[in-house]
## 1
Amino acid sequence: MIMKKIKISLVILLFAISFSANAQSKVAHINTTELVASMPEMNDAKAELEKLAKTYETDIQTMAAELQSKVKQYDTEAATQTDEENAKRLQEVQGMEQSIRQYQAQAQQELQKKEFDLLKPITEKAQAAINKVAETLGFDYVLDSTQGQGVIVAKGTDLMEEVKKELGF
């Protein structure tokens, strides 16, 4: 009885091994970071982000200059003002500093959101092209060979050129 179970298990194991040997999956790789960075749309997205960042930077510099001017004025006039007036001025300066910090944080959040909004359609387009090329060429799996993504050796088929052709560049 035990021998019969061992024989049946052995036959099933051999069948599974021969089946998996015949059904080899095709695997390719692509560096998605390099692909997205090379897409023409990325230049427009970078330019738009840089323009927005410069706008925020200019606003922050203007606010900082106003603060410095106010601090200089208040320092110059401090000796001729009452303690109560100087305390009010100190609170005003601290409020301005806090406003600048809040604006910086808000600007950073808005830049991150804008970056996400700009990159999402680009990465979706890249993903669609990868999917199409992989299907056309009969690949079952496509690994991301971007450094740090877990692929240690990428000597197999690289889909970069085919995907770039699919994207039209």
Note: The chain has one domain: 25-167.
## 2
Amino acid sequence: MFAKISIRAEELVIEHTGLIPSITGVPCAEVLDRQQWSIRNLRTFQTILDHAFAGNTAHEGTYNSIFSNNLILGPSSWATGMELGISVGWLSYRVLGQYDIFGGGYDSEIESITPTTPGSVYYVGPNILSLHRRHGFDLYPFGLWIALHETTHRCQLEGVPWLRPYLLEIVDHLLAAMVVPDPERLSAAIKRAASSATSPRDLLSQGGLATLFASDEQLDDIKKLQAAMSLLEGHGDVVMDDAATDIREEAEVFSKVLKERRKSGNILVRFFQELLGIKAKLLQYEKGASFLRELQARGDPEITSLVWREPANLPSLEELDDPNLWLERMGVLTKT
């Protein structure tokens, strides 16, 4: 069923967005359990981190694999590693679907060990069935609605030639700095956090535990990545609502339930969401969707298409909060 759903979802996404994946063939739909999903994501992170270490001559000849050696160096890397393990475990009970943005994305001598077919869309079966049973959703329209979001990511990453390399370059630069032990950088980061007008709690809410140990340069990379991912996730939410022509009435119900689900959780759950940077990720959907809705309200599809033209056209975090800043920079809106 999910193979059929993925094909139909991608047809609707292409029709709605005009983004056509360059990858050959129809989406490969893979239904995973929670453990399988966790392993896939940890292996993807392993490939990314191995790639970052490969360019670090300080560890040449002494390192085979971050995960196999159970070693992540440096204070910010330690924080990131701890976040990664706990976050993946927590998210495995929440995530419904995924398009592996980074899996198999490197063109290098390092062999990607991510065991997936290029262009695969994942569906976490137990989580989908749990919501299906709890709310009495009809499984086909619910699955199609989820697939719209994930195949939107497939169309983004495979239909915008510069997008994946842009994201991978930021991740490489960020991780390459994190994997080098640097006590001076940790000291500077602590001093910056102590003297900053931004409280430690606010830093946590912006990106989780790793932001407390990040240098100014790393924070810039984190902000660039957050802004790009906010656009991608928000775009996925907008498209899954707007392109759901086959299931319009059901989509409204699904959207309401999903938004309530994202906000749910007791005080302890919300604290860990902040600590692990999950709260920042959840806010990405809202920021990106709100930004794109503002562009849509101007009634000119060409304005929205500007964001996919080149990396320089991506909105910053400040521009996501105030779309007029982006419109002014793009020359669409003149200052008054």
Note: The mean pLDDT is 77.
